[in-house]
Amino acid sequence: MSSTPAAHPSAIEAHAYPLLIKQLLLTPLAVNPGQEIVYGDNVRFDYRTLQARIGQLAGLLTSLGVKPGDTVAVMDWDSNRYLESYFAVPMIGAVLMMVNIRLAPEQIAYTLNHSGARVILANREFLPMLAAIEEHLPDLRTRILLDDAEGELPAGFVTEYEAGLRAATPVTAFPDFDENTRATVFYTTGTTGLPKGVYFSHRQLVLHSLAAMAALGSAASQGRMHRGDVYMPITPMFHVHAWGVPYVATLMGIKQVYPGRYLPGNLLALIDREKVTFSHCVPTILHMLLEHPSAAQIDLSQWKVIIGGAALPRALAQRALALGVDIFGGYGMSETCPLLTLAQIDVDALDDAEEELSLRTKAGIPVPLVDLRIVDPEMQDVAHDGVATGEVVVRAPWLTQGYLHNPDASAALWAGGYLHTGDIGNIDAGGYLRVTDRIKDVIKTGGEWISSLALEDIIALHPAVNEVAVIGIADTKWGERPLPLVVRHAGREVSEAEIIELIAARSRAGDLSRYAIPERVAFVESLERTSVGKINKKKLRGLHDPSTV
Question: DSSP string spanning 470-527?
Answer without folding.
Answer: EEEEEETTTEEEEEEEEEEPTT----HHHHHHHHHHHHHTTSS-GGGS-S--EE-S--
